[in-house]
Amino acid sequence: MSDNTEEIRYQVNTPISVEQFVQLLTETSLGARRPLEDRACMEAMLKHADLLITAWSGEKLVGVARSVTDFHYCCYLSDLAVSEAAQHKGIGKALIAQTCRQLQPNCKLILLAAPLAQEYYPKLGFDKHPSAWTIISSSFS
Questions:
Q1: Over the stretch 44-98, which tens digit does the pLDDT of each residue have?
Q2: Is 73 a domain residue?
Q3: Are 109 and 77 in contact (CB under 8 A)?
Q4: Is 31 among the domain residues?
Q5: Is residue 85 assigned to a domain?
Q6: pLDDT in the model for residue 31
Q7: Is residue 2 part of a domain?
Q8: Is 1 a residue whose pLDDT tops 50?
């Protein structure tokens, strides 16, 4: 960000381009765990998200919260990314708050923490769940 005092603007379900999404992810530790080179996958990630909250500093995308949700029972916050240049300013917390505002009151927000964010989520009030499991769809028989 060119101006540290510039106000951050949040938008709900405003479309962003694949290029903007990929650029932001490259500015975060999350980029190493996303298929940035697979344009079709990145396009589908944006197209099929149920909820997309973005954070902007001027015309620059500095944060995103991308979720898959039914809005009532559960919301999987798949990507929470804030540009390293814009971190430690409350943007991640605000993206989570904006996400929660779009959900019904008892909807559970679920996420898998990136290795570098393990200490971040408890500070926001998240409870650690002892049994999360993943599998690649093509490996299931």
A1: 999 999 999 999 999 999 999 999 999 999 999 999 999 999 999 999 999 999 9
A2: yes
A3: yes
A4: yes
A5: yes
A6: 87
A7: no
A8: no
What whole-number distance in Å separates Cα of residue 53 and Cα of residue 82? 12
**What mean pLDDT is reported for the chain?**
92
Rounded distance between C-alpha atoms, residue 15 and residue 46, angstroms: 8
> Where in the sequence is the domain holding 120, given as residue range(s)?
8-139
Q: Which percentage of the chain shows pLDDT scores above 70? A: 96
Rounded to 5°, angle at Cα 32 from 125 and 122: 10
Q: Are 45 and 33 in contact (CB under 8 A)?
A: no
In CATH, what number is assigned to the domain containing residue 65?
A: 3.40.630.30
Calpha distance 26→88 (Å, rounded): 18
Q: Which two tokens stand for residue 104?
A: 């019904």
The two tokens of residue 2 are 């060119």
And the tokens for 92?
């991640």
> How many domains would you assign to the chain?
1
- Residue 29, φ and ψ in degrees, nearest 5: -70, -15
Are 73 and 38 a contacting pair, CB within 8 Å?
no
